[in-house]
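User: Here's a chain of 81 residues. Predict its fold as tokens.
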Amino acid sequence: MFSKLSVAAVLVPFVSALTLNTPTGLSSGGPATITWTSEPTDPPFSIELVNTAFHDTFAIANNVNPLMNTISLNLPSVPVR
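Assistant: Prediction complete.
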């Protein structure tokens, strides 16, 4: 019983409340505005494009301050294979 409680107590500080709002209408090489909701305790994070068919990952934003709750950027031109 106590081992379960101790694991839960250890993991509580690592719980974040960051919720990403899924953007729509994005295209390769085009502009994007990504929004989210966060808590003051959320750590900085990265945003990546992932193509599971080709196992490619493209970092589009690193070390993002979660308190900004929005980021506007131009997406990279992603190669088509």
